[in-house]
Design goal:
Mean pLDDT: 87
Structural class: alpha+beta
Radius of gyration: 28 Å
Helix content: 25-40%
Number of strands: 33
Shape: globular
Low-confidence stretches: 730-753, 759-763
Strand order of the largest sheet: 3-4-5-7-6
Largest sheet: 5 strands, mixed, barrel
Number of domains: 6
Oligomer: single chain
Strand content: 25-35%
Length: 763
């Protein structure tokens, strides 16, 4: 029997209820090397069987026994007035009922009520009864708040929600509008309803955040809807204004002409690069990164706020930074011709681009130039201007030479080759929406990206070599379930994928190369993307599947990512570069920090996506009735999601609006097909659509399908009919005909809009 086995793990957890994380269990059982993979599989099996409950990204509890502390939801009152609750896990409530036992220690505040959640200390009394003692009563969940548009009426008004997922409208009585005026964007909460059950619920305005005509209202809505922290505490601002960098020994790199290459409108510059050719044909590359740890002391007000934010959030029209402007765009930014503290890595590559060795330096640098990607690329392409012309021979050409070498090794490594287009929303100087462009990817972008990847790998390697705690950036291998679904999808196209083999990037790349330019390129690329796991931060190394790297950490952007700041502190500690390295207290919190900043990253991505959707809806608001080419990016029983060519805006085609055919959802093929003809709309398919309605407040587009469905792949229609007959009829009904749930009809779209876009420039 392999170690650790299932019973050993269960016995350990029973005897050590405080050891709740995978790392705790591994340490307690002295699990090492390949045994970690066995432990991971055992925990997964026990979770699937219901014997363990996941209480966090990597923490577990026995399903029939609560952990010593955890999240509790209070669910009911007994006849005797006792408030009862249960522990909260990923799959819902678990374990025995817990009796609310009051606050824990010196905790103060209101007592919990039915429906509240709290972080609790949990203990069993002598009589066997479990008690929950509240440490922190959590604020009302975000779903209890509504961000929306206030519409005034004679005796109050109503709130139209800005989220497409929010179905509630709140009625606001005159005394509850808190000064809100018609057209204001507000944050509101529902009021306790008591016995009043008829009609929309009552609400109260908590805050007026802006007005619908504000040119920046789209991002403003996203900031409040996703609870993105904006204002810095005064203590953090005071530290940022007064902070001097740590006085530590530094290597002098001011004579090395390091340069920054960034977007033309970048305000913070946290990385600089330089390269030179060696006598043997190899290359020396230096990547210098802003020494943020020298300014942000662990445990300070600045540090607490940076950890809380987790990362900067980038909207089309503004940035919500992780650090105050005084640091992010000034003291820490590697500005041209100004001395700056940095943490640098010097890497030696062979002429074939393989890294031979590296070393880290805590240094002082002086940027020789601030170039945009376009300036650097134009100079290399033979049209140098300004500072780029002066540095072409001495700096830019060596950088491109080193990049050419490193690219050879990258091609052998074969990272996942999914080059998805990015869109850029343009604004006038007055802040009005001006247009949408697709970002052009230059070799200058790829050069910086590859050097940053190499620096990140070096950071992870060094920390492992020095037995230091590591905050890894991990991208797990696609799950068996996702690979099986991908193989089933390919089978609908008469293509094969061996699900018995471990997924590898070069196999995905080979498939993508084979279908490039063909009819199935769009749909297969979409499905490859959907098959991937989500990248997260972790103290456990799972490797980075997408980059095809065994170890990886984020080191190169400490101005905008807290993970990088943690890695900097770990490197400072590992090299004894100063007293401001990672503390033991922070080292034992790595898993907690990793879970938190993975959450803040997802939160920022969702907020950025929402704001972009609203700006795109504004841009298209005067194009109702226009026709567009598009690509189907999602298929559900209710309809099709289509990304419009040019803008990249996403719209929805209700299945009931396509035709009178009886449409059946084929989950395996990610398609819908007509029962009679077998004709199909599939993911990735190019279609023609008409824009029917726009709701900029919610970022919604309603589309009408103009294209005809495609014939089913050979033999697919007959196979579908056979399956349907075996099952006794369609299992997923999506169109007209008898049986199944009633059709809802077209969704109602609210006509109120966000601010108008600026007048288009004449070409």
């Amino acid at each position: 029997m392999s170690f650790p086995d299932r019973q050993t793990v269960l016995d350990f957890l029973r005897e050590n209820p405080g050891a709740t994380t995978k790392a705790d269990i591994a340490r307690g059982l002295k699990v090492k090397g390949h045994e970690r993979a066995i432990l991971r599989d055992v925990l997964k099996e026990l979770e699937e069987e219901g014997k363990l409950e996941r209480t966090g990204k990597r923490s577990f509890a026995q399903a029939d026994r609560p952990p010593p502390s955890g999240l509790v939801e209070f669910t009911r009152l007994t006849k005797d007035g006792d408030l009862l609750g249960q522990c909260v896990g990923d799959s819902g409530l678990f374990g025995p009922e817990l009796v609310y036992g009051g606050p824990s220690g010196k905790s103060r505040g209101r007592a919990p009520a039915k429906g509240d959640r709290a972080v609790c200390k949990i203990a069993q009394r002598d009589n066997g009864e479990w008690r929950a003692y509240v440490i922190t009563l959590l604020e009302k969940r975000l779903s209890d708040r509504i961000v929306g548009l206030y519409e005034h009426a004679p005796r109050g008004g109503r709130i139209l929600p800005a989220s497409r997922k929010e179905r509630r409208e709140l009625l606001i009585q005159e005394g509850d509008r808190k000064g809100a005026k018609d057209g204001d964007l507000v944050v509101a909460e529902p009021k306790p309803q008591g016995r009043r059950q008829m009609g929309p619920p009552l609400g109260v305005v908590k805050e007026v955040i802006g007005h619908i005509t504000d040119a920046r209202s789209a991002s403003l809505i996203a900031i409040y809807a996703h609870d993105i922290p904006v204002d810095f505490p005064e203590a953090a601002l005071k530290e940022a204004r007064e902070k001097e960098p740590a006085d530590v020994p530094r290597t002098d790199l001011r004579g090395t002409p390091l340069i920054t290459i960034d977007p033309h409108d970048a305000r913070d510059h946290d990385d600089a690069v330089w390269a030179e050719e060696l006598e043997d044909g190899g290359w020396k590359v230096i990547v210098a990164i802003a020494d943020v740890a020298a300014y942000v002391t662990e445990g300070s007000a600045l540090d607490r706020e940076a950890e809380k934010r987790g990362n900067s959030t980038y909207f089309p029209d503004r940035v919500v930074p992780m650090l105050p402007f005084e640091l992010s765009a000034d003291a820490c930014s590697l500005r041209e011709n100004e001395d700056r503290p940095c943490l640098a890595v010097e890497m030696i590559f062979s002429k074939d681009g393989h890294k031979k060795r590296h070393r880290f330096l805590r240094a002082t640098m002086r940027s020789a130039a601030k170039l945009s990607y376009e300036e650097a690329q134009t100079a290399i392409d033979g049209h140098p201007e300004g500072r780029a012309a002066e540095l072409l021979e001495t700096v830019l050409k060596p950088l491109w030479g080193a990049y050419a070498a490193v690219s050879k090794a990258r091609d052998i490594r074969s990272p996942l080759d999914l080059d998805m287009p990015e869109r850029r929303i343009m604004f006038t100087p007055e802040g009005e929406l001006d247009g949408i462009t697709t970002k052009v990817r230059l070799d200058a972008h790829r050069l910086i990206e590859e050097f940053m990847i190499q620096a990140n790998v070096a950071a992870a390697e060094t920390l492992e070599q020095k037995n230091s705690p590591v905050m890894y950036r991990v991208h797990d291998t696609p799950s068996d379930a996702k690979v099986a679904a991908f193989a089933e999808f390919l089978q609908t196209l008469d293509m094969k994928w061996n699900i018995g083999e471990r997924p590898q990037t070069h196999k995905f790349n080979r498939l993508l190369a084979e279908i490039r330019g063909g009819d199935y390129e769009g749909m297969i690329s979409q499905m490859v993307l959907r098959t991937q796991a989500q990248a997260i931060y972790s103290e456990e190394n799972l490797g980075h599947f997408g980059l095809n790297l065994p170890k990886y950490a984020h080191f190169t952007s400490p101005i905008r990512r807290y993970a990088d700041l943690v890695v900097h502190r770990a490197l400072i500690r590992a090299h004894d570069f100063g007293p401001d390295g990672l503390s033991e207290r922070a080292a034992v919190r790595l898993e907690e920090i990793a879970e938190h900043i993975s959450m803040t990253e997802r939160r920022s991505m969702a907020a950025e996506r929402d704001a972009t959707d609203r700006y795109l809806a504004i841009f298209l608001s005067d194009r109702v009735g226009a026709e567009f080419d598009g690509r189907i990016t999602g298929v559900t029983p209710a309809g099709l999601f289509v990304s419009l060519a040019g803008s990249g805006a996403d719209g929805f085609v209700p299945i009931s609006s396509i035709s009178e055919d009886y449409w059946i959802h084929d989950a395996a093929a990610v398609a819908v097909y007509a029962r009679g003809s077998g004709k199909t709309f599939s993911i990735g398919q190019i279609v023609r659509v008409k824009l029917r309605e726009v709701t900029p407040l919610q970022g919604g587009l309603l589309l009408e399908m103009l294209s005809e469905p495609l014939p089913a792949p050979p033999g697919r229609h007959a196979a579908r009919q056979a399956i349907t007959r075996e099952r006794g009829g369609p299992r997923s009904r999506s169109g007209g005909g008898g049986g199944g749930p009633p059709r809802r009809g077209k969704p109602k779209f609210d006509k109120r809009t966000l601010p108008k876009k600026g007048k288009p420039k004449r070409k």
